[in-house]
Amino acid sequence: MKRFAVALTSCASLAALTASLAGQAPAPRTHRLEATPATVAVGYYWSEAKPALRIASGDIIDVDTLLTNNPTGLARAGVPDDKIQALLKSVVAEVTGDRRGPGGHILTGPVYVEGAQPGDALEVKVLSIDLPIDYGYNGCSGFVPENCERGTPSKILTLDRARMTSEFAPGIVIPLKPFFGSMGVAPAPELGRVSSNPPGRHAGNMDNKELVAGSTLYIPVFASGALFEIGDGHAAQGDGEVDQTAIETSLRGRLQLTVRKGMALNFPRAETATDYISMAFDPDLTK
């Protein structure tokens, strides 16, 4: 009887301690971030970009991204006008001139994360990824252009969101494993406004198909607030974009952004349920 009473007391004390500690750490807030002309950075990462959203470390963002294309290209490929997202039309029409950077991606953000400073790392937990539209496209170019039929528009692929598959051609069914091709932070200020096309130490256009829901990405921080941006949604991709595209589509993601103080990294790293992933980038791959 005494032993049982002691156990009850210990459990009660532990419960009280847990409740006390929980009370000291505020629950993370969830922030909704749509992709609109006011909340996108088209074609660049930049330390001087104006934040679209400010959050506390540990908060969650429920974020939309738009596919990297334009209404004219999608219509030419056969997408009906009523299936082309209104926000994509608005972004392409309104974000022009010097509001566009040298790259081609429509990135949502930047998100300013309170407390992030150079020398820290930004932890990006990919909690979930959903497919808000039922189609994607695949272009054909890349390093073996002779494999592409000249003059043909992008191939539109229907996304079966119930089965999570897409039929590329009769008998060729692709499993859908959506991920964001581009997730990154502002590069060092001295680099200026950099193109969204090549990846770098700031991460960016890594096109890493392993960064699906359940994975965690760690990115070195180079500017105050980190200035996280995200986009280039893919419904599926092989080991790289052999024909220069994946199945490009719009995505909705739920991500938790946490500052890791003093976690000095030279390059981005990632974790999945099964692997640790190291990444490195250089402008000259012959080195």
From TrEMBL:
<dbReference type="InterPro" id="IPR004304">
    <property type="entry name" value="FmdA_AmdA"/>
</dbReference>
<keyword id="KW-0732">Signal</keyword>
<protein>
    <submittedName>
        <fullName>Acetamidase/formamidase</fullName>
    </submittedName>
</protein>
<feature type="signal peptide">
    <location>
        <begin position="1"/>
        <end position="27"/>
    </location>
</feature>
<dbReference type="Pfam" id="PF03069">
    <property type="entry name" value="FmdA_AmdA"/>
</dbReference>
<dbReference type="GO" id="GO:0016811">
    <property type="term" value="F:hydrolase activity, acting on carbon-nitrogen (but not peptide) bonds, in linear amides"/>
</dbReference>
